[in-house]
Amino acid sequence: MVDLALPSGTPVGELLPTIVALARQHPDESPLCWRLDRLSGASLDESITLAENGVHDGEVLILAASDAPALGPMRWGPFRTVAEAGPPADVSQFIPAVTCVWAAALASLALCASLTGHPSIHVLIAAIGTSIAAAMAVTGQSPPAAVAAVSLAVATGFLTVPSGPDPANVFLAAAASASMALALLRWADQSASTLVATATFSALVAIAVIVPIVAVVPVATVGAVLAVAALGVLGLSGRMAILLSGLTVDRHADIDERALRGHATLTGLVGGCSGAATLGAVLIAVGCHRYGAPSPPGAGFAAVIGVVLLLRVRTYVDEARRTALAIGGLVSASAAFVIFVTAHPAQVGWVSAVLIAIGLGATRPPRLNAVTARAVEVLEYAALVAVVPLACWVGGVYAIVRGVSLP
Q1: Rounded mean pLDDT of the chain?
Q2: What b/e readout covers 119-156, taking b as 16+ CB neighbours within 10 angstroms?
């Protein structure tokens, strides 16, 4: 490294021979042509002066041969590391992993759905399976075993409450699932996003199920509470991922590891919230179809959930998050469609025509400009504003207030 004092008003091309003569250490091995590069990798324009190139006093420049490869941009900021970090590649075999998860999920479903036999034996089988799967996940770093442990924990919690199924069974199953997922997060790094999604989904379900445990409420009310809670957590998912992964401005050590953890946490939060909001829309559809809940607010609320999830897709670049939001949005929109056509079968024709037009139009989306982008933002804000009033309508809050206010 050589410190040089150079005139700022002389073209760079005229200064290069002097700079080379002062800086080179092996004249016989020096190339014929040279260039000056910034630390960012950009080369200076030789036809203009240092001042016109924007070179300031004390700036460090690199003297390089003209045929040398460019240095390229430097990763000087931790935010670049966080933005460009990605989850580690999944090296697990597909068929064994799917088989493990399929077997555990099917066994858990069978144990929970069985109304005959010996419940104590079913609980014992689920508990032993949970313990073995959790041990395999911890000792072998096996993501499929971690998912199997969470699935069997759901069955264990569900079967622990006797004389079910009741909301208490669902609450304990969700609590067991969230607890197992959070416990396995300390060891199962490869399945962090899946475990975070499971814990998020289970925690939201547990919160929503508290309502029917405390009071007798319709299924649609539980779905409305679940969807509102999920959308609220989804809006805070970015900040929560930063806090949970330790990506604060005063901590720069080991930024790569925390960036990967932050991406996995954000993916899990988005996936769990999308699943919970979608389940809320499905519960509202079930309440409208089987239990006589009012269809206009139910269809409107499910449609709003679908719009919010689909419009949120554009804010992410990660495929896993975009896929989770897109699937959740489409399922919620499907729930709204089912509610509407079930309540108004005579209107199936024109509603189907509109649906076909939307589907065909999605294959050729319009080019976004500033006006269109702003209109999409306004539409998303309007949908978010409509969430709480529609949820209160679906949940019967307005009817309760109206009944209390009457003399």
Answers
A1: 84
A2: beebbebbbebbeebbebbbeeebbbbbbbbbbbbbbb
Q: Is 63 helix (H, G, I), strand (E, B) or coil?
A: strand
Q: What is the DSSP string of 221-264?
A: HHHHHHHHHHHHHHHTHHHHHHHHHT--TT--TTHHHHHHHHHH
Q: What phi and psi, each to the nearest 5 degrees, are found at residue 110?
A: -65, -40
Q: Which residues pair with residue 65 across a beta bridge?
A: 34
Rounded CA separation 173/52 (Å):
68
Amino acid at 34: W
How many CA atoms within 13 Å lie on the side-chain side of 66? 9
The neighbouring-strand residues paired with 120 are none
Cβ count near 323 (within 10 Å): 15
74/40 Cα distance (integer angstroms): 6
* pLDDT, position 139: 85
For the record, the structure tokens of 209 come out as 């199920």
Give dist(CA 321, CA 324) in Å, integer: 5
How far apart are alpha carbons 250 and 265 in whole angstroms?
Answer: 20
pLDDT over 90, % of the chain: 35
Rounded Cα gap, residues 301 and 393, in angstroms: 9
Quote the CA–CA distance of 400 and 357 in Å, as a whole number. 40
pLDDT digits (tens, 9 = 90+) for 382-394: 999 999 999 999 8
Please state the domain extents for the chain. Answer: 12-75, 92-190, 230-407
Helix extents (H) in 66-191: 78-84, 94-113, 119-140, 143-160, 167-184
Averaged pLDDT, 193-214 = 92
Question: Could you give the percent of the chain with pLDDT greater than 70?
Answer: 86
Closest-CA residue to 394 (of 208, 261, 124, 263): 208
Residue 221 Ramachandran class (φ > 0 left, ψ -120 to 50 alpha, else beta)? alpha
- Please give the residue that has the higher pLDDT: either 303 or 52: 303
Amino acid at 219: V
Residue 249 has a pLDDT of 62
